[in-house]
Design a protein that fits this description.
CATH topology of the largest domain: Porin
Oligomer: single chain
Number of domains: 2
Strand content: over 45%
Strand order of the largest sheet: 1-2-3-6-7-8-9-10
Largest sheet: 8 strands, antiparallel, barrel
Structural class: alpha+beta
CATH class of the largest domain: Mainly Beta
Length: 214
Amino acid sequence: MFPLLSSTARRAARRAARRAPGAAALALLTTATAGAALAQASAGPRLSFGAVAGSSTPTSLLRDYTRVGAHVGAFAQLRTPTRWLALRGELSHHRLASDDLVVVSAGGAAPNLGSPLRLTAGGLTTLAYVSGGAGGVRPYVLAGASANHLGGRATSVQGPRDRQWYAGAHGGVGLEATVRRATVLVESRYISVSGAHVSTRVVPVSVGVRFAPR
């Protein structure tokens, strides 16, 4: 009986030895997966910086005495833990060329002396990324609010009131794609500035780049 028990024990030991490598590999894979998930979760928000430039098209009453201009801007973007939501702090400067004409309003007539309209804005913007982008392209929608600094003769139709601050809001859409270590973006938005003497509505179209420091 003892030889039989000894043989049975040896077979059980061999089966356990054959299963041991598989169990070890499974444990190692589980540990690696958990570690990757923990590292991704601990990474949290990530800060990146970017710059944009493009055209600025006046709309509404503003297009009666200004022409298409240009703008430049810079921003800092913070990716939230949800990954599909991001926050931006932005600064931009728009310059719209003026036509030489006389602007007439209820308060009287004021000459537009050709001084360009200058719009400097600082604001906060929320970006929501939309799933379903193909080829590494990520579409997004954006909305936000800003403080807008208007300068130039064209800021008032009642006299040379210059350099005034007004609240504004904006919304738009964009696309971005990663190219090597940078992210290239194209976006369009609608800017509305309230409280100015003249309705200030601008549609900028921007091309830019965003990068994250290592």
